[in-house]
Structure formats: structure tokens, C-alpha cells
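From the pipeline queue, job 12 of 40. The input is one protein chain; the requested action is below.

Action: predict structure.
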Amino acid sequence: MLLNVLLSAAFVMTVPATPSPQMPDPAAILKSTERVATWQLDHKDTFEHMPAASRSVRDPRDWQQATFWVALTELADRSRDPAYARAIVELGRAQRWRLGDKPFHADDQLIAQAWIWAAAHGAGGGALVPTKAYFDAVLANRPVGELEFRPNPSGRGDPVCTQRWCWADALFMAPPTLLRFSRVTGDRRYARFAHEEFRATTDYLYDRRERLFFRDSRFFERRDAKGHKLFWSRGNGWVMAGLVRIIGELPETDPQRAYYVGLFRDMASRIVGLQKPDGYWAPSLLDNGADTPPETSGTAFFTYAFAWGVDVGILDAKTYRQAAIRGWGALERSVQRDGMLGWVQQVSDRPDSVAASDTQFYGAGAYILAGTALYDLSRHGAAR
């Protein structure tokens, strides 16, 4: 018996450990990011790879495209290719710097982040006029309704609660936009509104035991076939990516910053343990067995958050650096030969089916965010 134990121990000691993935070279990361961005720019008017896209996907001011255009500002800041900056400014001029047509809906506010960037990169202060008019109208007519996600009583249109941030995705769309606009204008009203509404949404949708967000109130009691709570990967990815962009707008002296950093770390400590061995996160975070499909939009947002968090010193490098590298490796395997990012779950509000040939603007946007954050982390690590 003792001999068997000793032999088993010797065997365990001699089995080579699985090597940790290595951080790619910064130039390689940037090249891959540019490749996906260029494919999406070249195909911005084609939609055959988006089987669940609604007609609104054709509107660049809609959140589906806006996620890509906002992410493209990050690439334009890092790339030597002027085509990315030029595309953003040309789009803004063509759209006359307007936000979406819905007066309170967070989805229609995201594109303003691209316009704010453009104003500082050649477009001038005139690019901000429609954004100011939009948000001044919001503050003058501030919605105060409940956050419960129920059908519109009229039977048509969005739930009434979407005039506020009653779904997790909204925390990426609206609060970073308002905080950035507050910073560039010096008007603290926009920041106060964002902080108050963010806390209201978090108090309502954040499961503090699971350290994850429900997508909206309809999912509080829902369970999957295995009895798991339904925590949507992309929904929580929206929140994590939104927190990156919120914290990035707040100086360390801002009294609100600690709240967001605490929430970011709390979520990260849960999400890192849900990453699958193949580097992806499953569409439904708690149903993450080996048989679950790849999904790149949630994976890209988590990779973005981890890479950024390590780079700025908010997240522990020992815990999160390798998770970001594994996430990037998974994303790289999902880029097809022509540069299209596949395995993007289509427009939905919950975990759903996904295929290798499925892409979307927001998937490319999430990939660009992940690539630019990992590029920074790799570059700064090499410099050190």
C-alpha cells in the first residue's frame, strides 16, 4: 500500500504542468485588432452574417453599430493607420452628430461617446451640440418610473421602464457617456445623474450573493433546465465593460470612484472562476460545461475588463493576467480567415444559440476593446 502511494506521488510530481499561455507581442495584438476592425468597416453595409439583426442594425446611431464605432475610437488612438479616425469623423458628419431618436433610451445614447472623441480629434465643438441638447432634455424631464421590466401597456414599443436603466446592458450604453460628457464640459449635473441612476439599477439587478447581474427583473426567478440562475454572459460583459469606461473617467480623488472599483473587483472575482478551460465564457455563465459553445461577445468584454484592470493596477496580475491572455487566445481562434469575428451570439436578452458564422457590430466592437486593452498591457509589460 505504501509503495503504491509513493509511486502515485512520484507520478504526480513528474507529470508536466500545462504551460501557461504567453502574452502575445504588442505588434501582433494590434495587427489582429486592426484586421477585425478593417473587415467590419469593409462590411458595414452588408448584413448576411447577422441572422437575427433587426432593421435598426442599419442605423449607425443604434447601439448595435454604436458599440463598434465607440470601440473604434480606442483603436484610432493606438493605430498608425488614419483610416479609423477618418471613418469616425466622416460618419459623425454624415449623421449630423445626432444621437438616437428615442429621447430617454440608453441604447440611443452610446454613439455620443464617438462624437465626443471626434470633437477632440478634428470635428470641433460643434459635434457636441446635439449631445448637449439631448442630455439637457433628459435632465429637464428626468424619468422617475419603476425599474420592473414589464410589457408596454399600449402593447407597442419598448417597456416603459427603459426610459430608465432597467436592464444590465444600459450600464455600458449610458453612464460612461454621461460621465465623459460631464468631464469635457465641466458640468457636474450629468455626472450626478449618472451616479444616482447607476446605483439605483445596481441595487435592483445585482445579485450580491452570486456577484453577477440579472439582465432585467424578468430573470429574478427564472432557472435553466439544470436549476441554475440565468446570468447572461454578454449582459454581465456589458456591465464589466461599462465599469471600465466609468472608472476611466473618474480621477482617483473622485469620492464616487471607490464604489465602482469595489463593484468591478467584486464581479471580477466571480467571473474569473467561470472561465472555461478553452478560454471562453459560456453564454449562460453558470452553465459552463465542456459541451457549451464558444461565444465571443461576452468573452471579449471580460477579456477587455481583465486586461484593463491589470494594466491600471486595479486587478491582481497573478490572478487576472493569464485569464485575459486565455480569453484573447479564444477570441483569436474565432476570427475567420478573412478577418470576420465569428461565434457572436445574435441580438437577444438571454443566453441563446450561436454559430461559427455569426457575427455582429457589437461583437467586433467588443473584440477591438479587448485587443486595445491587451495591447496596452503587453506594451507596458515589455516596457517594464
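Job complete. The first helix runs from residue 2 to 14.
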